[in-house]
Amino acid sequence: MKKQHVIIVLVVLMIALCIALDVIFAARFAVIERKEEETVETTTEPETTEPVSETLPPDTTPAPYASPIDFVSFREQNEHIYAWIDIPGSTISQPIMQHPTDKDYYNRRGIDQNYSVYGSIFTEAKYNSTDFNDPVTLIYGHHTFNSLMFGDLQTMYKDEIGEYDEIVIYMPERELHYQVFAAIVHNDLHILHYNDFSNADTFNRFFNNIFARSGNYITLDKECTVTPEDKVIILSTCFNGSSTYRYLVMAKLIETIE
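RE: above sequence
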């Protein structure tokens, strides 16, 4: 009987020991598992956000003006070339010359400064600068019978301004666009000598008289207005029909591209 009691006690102790060992093992396993989770949490790299690339606005800086005329090459031939006149659709596309002291120098000289019966297209330094900022710039060219210089002006504008309503002046640093408003026969008095266009009254009086003209070889765009604030060019050539008259084509500046 005593022996059975001992066996029962031993069995109970073994069961208790097993239960205790299970509890200890479970607790230790839980601690180990918790530590592993903490390790994972602390060693996991934080999420990184890709840097947002900054989108720059497009470069809107305009490109510098590039003239279609090779002034560098032309000036190697003749330093007096300062501009180029072009009437789109016509035969007129020529350099403009200006001698610094002799106003008639290019009347019978070509671009090479040698004698030429056709002369060149030119302005006079005595009356006009080379920047086209004068109220009126007078541009001369001979009337010829082979379409050189201003030979075709009288034919182009005889009946209407029509398709030749624009004149373009090219310069190394910009281009000037003019609207033609008159093509007329006129006396041969020197326009800039007898008219001070820096005076508003003189300017208005002269061009009011132009718009009041009528008759043969007078073509006007009466919808166009001209004021002392405008910049005007006048192309002047001999009138085919009388040596005492000139044929004039007048245009005002409407656009500058630079």
